[in-house]
Amino acid sequence: MNGLALQDIRACFEGAIPAVVATCSADGVPNVAYISQVFYADERHVALSFQFFNKTRQNILANPRATALLLHPVTVRFYRLHIRYLRTETEGPLFEGMKAQLAGIASHTGMQDVFRLLGSDVYEVEQVEALEGEPLPEPPPRAGLLGAVRRASERLARCASLDEALNAVLASLNDLLAVRHAMVLMHDAALQRLYTVASSGYATSGVGSEIGIGQGVIGVAARERTPVRIGHVTNAALYTQAMRSSFDAHVPDFEPVLEIPYPGLPQPHSQLAVPIVNGGRLLGVLFVESEVDLRFSYEDEDALVAIAGHLGAAIELLQAATDSLEATASAPPTAAPAAPLPPLPVRHYAANDSIFLGDTYLIKGVAGAILWKLLGDHVRQGRTEFTNRELRLDLALRLPDVADNLEARLLLLQRRLVEQGAGLRIEKTGRGRFRLVVERAVQLVPA
């Protein structure tokens, strides 16, 4: 490439204004067409959306060289890319990222029923030209993003628990990046689902709500291990906010239960989902959204990827530190009996380990199994002091051998109990140790 670098004009790839692509047939006949999406792949490559087998597609398969004309959405300056076709991808992170962004563009232009991505045509960019004209002044460079990432990293470095780390990330997004609506979801590898463990800026926390891997913007980001950013959110089914707590109605003898309310915005205009990955392993997803179109830029995406990376490393380090201390922890003492308050019925459905406090749904899955064990030990033995280690050694809980995310499951359970306010709660008493506080007697009811 000469002069300009591709990353210097990333704003041109937001999809706000369609690009123009010029191709030429094998016998020298030119063709010019609008194209809905030119996607920034990396410092040397772009990808064009392949939606129709049209003249442009025919030409590019016969003659791989083309030019693409892009317009900067702020300065209205034209840039011309000289590109060479390399290949077409029909799956993977690049394809899924384009598919999600195209859905957003389609929604914005009222073309939901027309736009369908068949493939991502990958091109090498050989030259970037800035065309002559009278562009508007460049916007001032956005200051402070690197500093914001640094301060977020420093806050994470001071955290001694998963609870603190999640709070630090959400507070950093709000304080340093002016992101008002955000949530963190953790990955349940056994069930291939994501569950909300922390959120900020919503009317309800949504802690415990779930989404499947591959479902919606969040699920696609998790499945493909790549950020997914949409500037114009579509109402199409695949990219709506699909988060919900879904129970398997096909489980025999299982009574359908209420869903945990999804905490998202009712009408978001911009969304960005970033996978939390450490050592190549998916830990969860950091998700932000806004009521403003094009709220999140490439620079925001860069910042969130860095913060999500720090969060992933912090989660693993905190887990390792907890495991180390658990190995030397002394035997847990027994505790005083609960206060004589009216008994609380606690129902347990073994089919999916869902727990109800009275008639109110609380939690399911591993977190539900953990609470059922804790309450059982409390009723039978009067115990209230527990350790993470003994939970890991309890085969009945069916924790995975690797990456059990026990800390995250306990935090999820802790927050759900606080939200319910039914006289049960979990308190940390040290690294790898916690207390079950029972303020009223419980009546365990296997369902």
Automatic annotation (TrEMBL):
Tell me the Pfam families matching this sequence: GAF (PF01590), PNPOx_N (PF01243)
Q: From what superkingdom does this record's organism come?
A: Bacteria
Which InterPro entries would you find in this protein's record? GAF (IPR003018), GAF-like_dom_sf (IPR029016), Pyridox_Oxase_N (IPR011576), Split_barrel_FMN-bd (IPR012349)
Record-linked SUPFAM superfamilies: FMN-binding split barrel (SSF50475), GAF domain-like (SSF55781)
The GAF domain is annotated at 161-325
This one is known as GAF domain-containing protein
Organism from which the protein derives? Ramlibacter agri
For this protein's source organism, the top of the classification is: Bacteria, Pseudomonadati, Pseudomonadota, Betaproteobacteria, Burkholderiales
